[in-house]
Amino acid sequence: MSAPELKLAFCLYKYFPHGGMQRAFIRIAKLCLEAGAQVTVFVIQWHGEVPEGLEIEKFEATGMFNHTRYERYQHWLQKRLRREHFDCVVGFNKMPGLDVYYAADTCYLEKALTARSSLYRSTPRFRHFAAYERAVFEPTASTRVLMSSPTQLDVFRRHYSTPLDRFHRLPPGIARDRMAAEDAPARRQRGRYSLGIPDDHLLVLLIGSGFITKGLDRALDAVGSLPPLLKTKTHLVVIGTDDPRKFLAYAERLGISERFQVLSGRDDIPDLLQAGDLLIHPAHFENTGNVLLEAIVAGLPVLTTDVCGFAHYVLDAGAGCVVDSPFRQENLNRQLASMLASPERADWRQRGITFGCAADVYSLPQRAAEVILEAARDVKQETGA
């Protein structure tokens, strides 16, 4: 067998099949494999199947705290990369030594300065994550940054003065199977049946891992505040990876536990998008928010907060409503009740479907793979490897 044209190292801490960043990583890796590159993935944890052709190397990092485990992973990774030449080192988490960084996360320093105390900023955790972010974005670094959020691009540049030419803007990259198709009525029936939702009841979906960040507390408060008749007909179903116990207890206190379900990540999201009547996504922080676009193109009206990088697509498509900052719970409560009772839901649905047919919100993996392969060829040419 001939040697691969390019050897790529993909680095991320944890892989699980239903995370947004993880889905993008897999699609990008597959495109690089199709282009003839060898892709080796260095991880701490891997859950799920391994696509054909992908090589996985795991480091069982130990430690009480995440930042301790990540530091140990980084030390192992650097030793491993010195033993074998790779034409491009691609990170899906912020860390030193990257040629390309896929920016799935918001600016850590911004959050630490605006939403954390001065005491927090004296902790080892802060020093670790701030240093790893600085290694990617400082002006003297050479890391190319793949970024979908123009808002976050401005935030990173404000804190680090990163040269603009190091950023490579990406379009969104949702999967086309999220689009509403001719089988939408059958998918709706199948999805609602799987969840036990009566035909005359309303289904509100919240999709995403990291329930605190995604604003599940806010969503529960909003559902709990609905007018009595509307509340008895409204179900909130959450799909994602996180510990649900405190949210289940909170739903119990709000008196809505009988119509509240928390499900782990699953493969029938296209069915559930059709089954729903509204997507609620009142995130506290969100770099992009692919699920907003997935809902829009599926014809599912969206209610979200303006801190999400992709919230503007909801307004561009005319497919729902956006709650402005500063966030106030009463505004979300009022908007949810209004949207669930509104005859405009049919119009929001149709406008979202029309938008999905015309807009380029699908090609992120292709563009990301192009930048990675270009960076690898540049390194190969410079080193003569």
Model description:
- Helix 1 (20-34) packs across helix 16, helix 2 runs parallel beside helix 4 and helix 8 packs across helix 14 (329-341).
- It contains 16 helices and 15 strands.
- It is globular and about 70 Å long.
- It has 385 residues and is an alpha/beta fold.
- It has 2 domains: 7-171 and 363-383, Rossmann fold (3-Layer(aba) Sandwich), CATH 3.40.50; 176-358, Glycogen Phosphorylase B (Rossmann fold).
- It has helices at residues 20-34, 66-83, 108-115, 124-137, 150-160, 184-195, 211-214, 216-224, 228-231, 245-254, 269-275, 290-298, 311-317, 329-341, 345-358, 364-383, and strands spanning 7-11, 14-15, 38-43, 45-46, 55-58, 88-91, 100-102, 144-147, 167-169, 202-207, 234-239, 260-263, 278-281, 302-305, 320-323.
Topology:
Elements lengths: L6 E5 L2 E2 L4 H15 L3 E6 L1 E2 L8 E4 L7 H18 L4 E4 L8 E3 L5 H8 L8 H14 L6 E4 L2 H11 L6 E3 L14 H12 L6 E6 L3 H4 L1 H9 L3 H4 L2 E6 L5 H10 L5 E4 L5 H7 L2 E4 L8 H9 L3 E4 L5 H7 L2 E4 L5 H13 L3 H14 L5 H20 L2
Parallel strand pairs: 1-3, 1-6, 2-4, 3-5, 6-7, 7-8, 8-9, 10-11, 10-13, 11-12, 13-14, 14-15
Helix pairs in contact: 1-16, 2-4, 6-11, 8-10, 8-14, 12-15
